[in-house]
Specification:
This protein is α+β, with helices and mostly antiparallel strands. It folds into two domains: 146 residues, Glutaredoxin (3-Layer(aba) Sandwich), CATH 3.40.30.10; 123 residues, Glutathione S-transferase Yfyf (Class Pi), Chain A, domain 2. Helix content is 36%, strand content 6%. A four-stranded mixed sheet has the order 2-1-5-6. It has a two-stranded antiparallel ribbon with strand order 3-4. Helix 2 packs parallel to helix 4, helix 6 packs parallel to helix 8 and helix 7 packs across helix 9. The longest helix has 24 residues. The protein starts with 22 loop residues before the first helix and ends in a 30-residue tail after the last helix.
Length: 349
């Protein structure tokens, strides 16, 4: 049964966000430095944004792991009917676009190089009534120069509520009933139960630093030392999590799926088929960690999880913007992905 939280739920610790100290200098030296989201209203605490069924909308890209957190929460909490959603094409605009490069776009008719056809999950923009082409235009309407996804959007006031994925997950969990979940309180999981809050916070910090952001530190930093440090921390953290799951419980904090599992899943879902190559994280596959692999398969089998992400979008998004645009076909051994996630017995031991 979902526990009772305050109006907006305890929000994630902002100290988990990456320090912006000397960010421009660090980027110039080759380090990947993640920015900070600028829209931070809270459903139920901000009087402009009361939790109501059918009022809110998500803008996401299925290749983005931060968006994947949000689509997972939407599905697991039974909010797919009450919170509408638009999906951007996994590749952003290029240099020949009249609005410039590196902009998320709504382009359901664009052909994906991986499939030779449009991607059926992609949509037009449907929340504003203006059929906007670019995510950036949502921000420009509010005088902001940001351009990221995910976005939680209020269709009634046509305003952005928040663009911080961790806070979206936390408030969807706290307000699921008021937002119109199709699951009863007894059926719906509580992603942040009070009794496990301290343990979840500890795991969240470890997972964010070592795994979620660590994958980007490794893959997108051009400094060899930064890359090697991120690589080492990533696999050290995987070893810690493997040991955690070796204690016999099915999820990171015990018998129930929580926010810690939700935050870990998007990165590990991408590791073998994408990050192993694209992020230069070729130290091992998740398939080589038997407890983590079985955990990954267990989470993938939960209702709504498989449909909340897309490895086609991931491959198109990560490899389709690489220097030559060629997208790897594999892995094909011992099985193609995501089909492999249905086979926990594939674990190496």
């Amino acid at each position: 049964m979902a526990s009772q939280h305050d109006a907006g739920g305890k929000q994630p610790d902002q100290s988990l966000e990456e320090s912006q100290q000397d960010a421009s200098i660090r980027r110039a030296q080759g380090e990947f430095v993640r920015g900070v989201s600028g829209f931070r209203a809270v459903l139920g605490k901000d009087p402009d944004f009361p939790p109501e069924p059918g009022r809110y909308h998500l803008f996401v890209a299925l290749n983005c792991p931060w968006c994947h957190r949000v689509t997972l929460a939407r599905a697991i909490l039974g909010l797919e009917k009450s919170i509408t959603m638009d999906v951007a094409f996994p590749n952003r605009t290029d240099e020949v676009d009249p609005q410039g490069p590196n902009l998320w776009q709504f382009a359901p008719d664009r052909i994906a190089s991986l499939t030779g056809a449009p991607l059926p999950e992609c949509t037009w923009e449907t929340a504003t009534g203006q059929n906007l082409r670019l995510v950036r235009d949502l921000y420009l309407a509010e005088g902001s120069e940001e351009k990221s996804v995910p976005i939680l959007f209020d269709k009634q006031s046509r305003r952005i509520v928040t663009n911080e994925s961790a806070e979206i997950v936390r408030m969807l969990n706290a307000q699921a009933g008021a937002l119109g979940s199709v699951l009863s309180d007894d059926e719906r999981p509580d992603l942040y139960p009070d009794a496990r809050a301290e343990e979840i916070d500890r795991l969240n910090e470890k997972i964010y630093t070592g795994i979620n952001n660590g994958a980007y530190k490794a893959g997108f930093s051009s400094d060899q030392g930064v890359y090697e440090a991120a690589f080492q921390t990533y696999f050290d953290t995987l070893n810690e999590l493997e040991n955690c799951l070796s204690q016999g419980h099915p999820y990171l904090t015990g018998d129930r799926f929580t926010e810690a599992d939700l935050r870990l899943f998007p990165t590990l879902y991408r590791h073998d088929p994408v990050y192993y190559i694209r992020m230069k994280l070729n130290g091992a596959r998740i398939l080589d960690y038997p407890h983590l692999w079985r955990w990954l398969c267990r989470v993938h089998a939960l209702p709504g999880v498989a449909a909340s992400g897309s490895l086609i979008h991931c491959k198109q998004g990560y490899f389709g913007r690489s220097w030559n645009g060629t997208i790897p076909i594999g892995p094909v051994h011992p099985m193609t992905y995501p089909e492999a996630y249905g086979h926990p017995e594939l674990a190496s031991s």
